[in-house]
Amino acid sequence: MNLKLKTVLTFFVFFLWTVMGVAADSKNIPEISPDYVETLLAEGRVTRNVDGKNDTTHLEFLPNSPLAKDFLKVSTTESKPSFLTESLYYIEKPEGSTGSDMKLISQIVQSISTLEGIEYYSNSAGKTKILYSDVYVIDNLKNKNKLPDDETAEVNNRELYTCFVDASFGECFYKVNYKQKDNELSMIITLVKPIKFGFINAIKADNLVICIDILDKGDYLLMYLNAKVNYPSLSIFDNRVRSSLQARVDALYNWFVSSYEDKKK
């Protein structure tokens, strides 16, 4: 084989390898902006934080999917949030797992008590700590009697009340609302009793909302989370509330992924 022919063949093989590699690595995710697909696939997540000086009502990463648009978009704090954090995660399913996992996902998000003991990194303490020392469902806000999880309940349109014993905020009471449609499940966690710092109502009821949306795409999952909070404009709250909110979003993601991987084994 002469040198010229060998060079041409080498170039042709390299060209085919490159094209096939690009095709294999590229993935169409119609629910999100093409601007973020490359970063999402490479890093597994895209995230952003917005303070009250900017538009905290715009949800940049919110999937263009039925429940996300209709259910999560209308969930908001009592007034314009002082702070917003949102993240979108790409979760590969185990090899060979391509069927629907919606039943499994429904069971995980209704197993509220399994949030107990999840960890987070405390910037103020400079170490990993337990985020929730106890988490459970309650019968109502008046009696607050502890109930067991019911992970097999019909999740669509379900509403329940919960108590989260929080490392930073103490006992916190939330309303949890679920929606499910086809391959998508959404969950909204709304504060229903004020969080106090000393004698001050630092965060009023309805002024802390955490939203979760999970899409089963066959061979992977898309998981969207946002947390919105409105609180008094006092500098003593800023760092504590913001870092706490970011830690909770990361912890919820880690909790879901850990639970999902355990159930898929």
Question: How would you summarize the topology of this molecule?
Answer:
Layout: H1 3-25, H2 34-43, E1 45-51, H3 66-72, E2 83-92, H4 102-110, E3 119-122, E4 127-130, E5 132-138, E6 146-147, E7 159-166, E8 170-181, E9 184-191, E10 195-197, E11 200-203, E12 208-216, E13 220-229, H5 235-264
Antiparallel strand pairs: 1-2, 2-13, 3-4, 5-6, 5-7, 7-8, 8-9, 9-12, 10-11, 12-13
Helix pairs in contact: 4-5
Question: Mind explaining what this structure looks like?
Answer:
A nine-stranded antiparallel beta sheet has the order 1-2-13-12-9-8-7-5-6, sandwiched between helices. It has a two-stranded antiparallel sheet with strand order 3-4. A two-stranded antiparallel sheet has the order 10-11. It has five helices and 13 strands. Helix 4 crosses helix 5. Residues 8-25 have low confidence and may be disordered. Strand 3 (119-122) and strand 4 form a beta hairpin. Helices cover 30% and strands 33% of the residues.
Quick rundown:
The chain has helices at 3-25, 34-43, 66-72, 102-110, 235-264; strands at residues 45-51, 83-92, 119-122, 127-130, 132-138, 146-147, 159-166, 170-181, 184-191, 195-197, 200-203, 208-216, 220-229. With 265 residues, the protein is of the alpha+beta class.
Strand order of the largest sheet: 1-2-13-12-9-8-7-5-6
The biggest sheet amounts to: 9 strands, antiparallel
- Note the run of SSEs as H and E: HHEHEHEEEEEEEEEEEH
In total, how many beta strands?
A: 13
Distance between the termini: 53 Å
List segments where confidence is low: pLDDT < 50 over at least 5 consecutive residues. Answer: 8-25
Strand portion, in percent? 25-35%
Whole-angstrom Rg: 22 Å
Mean pLDDT rating: 86
Assign the structural class, choosing from mainly alpha, mainly beta, alpha/beta, alpha+beta, or little secondary structure: alpha+beta
Number of helices: 5
Instruction: Give the % helix.
Output: 25-40%
Tell the overall outline.
globular
InterPro entries: DUF6675
Pfam families: DUF6675
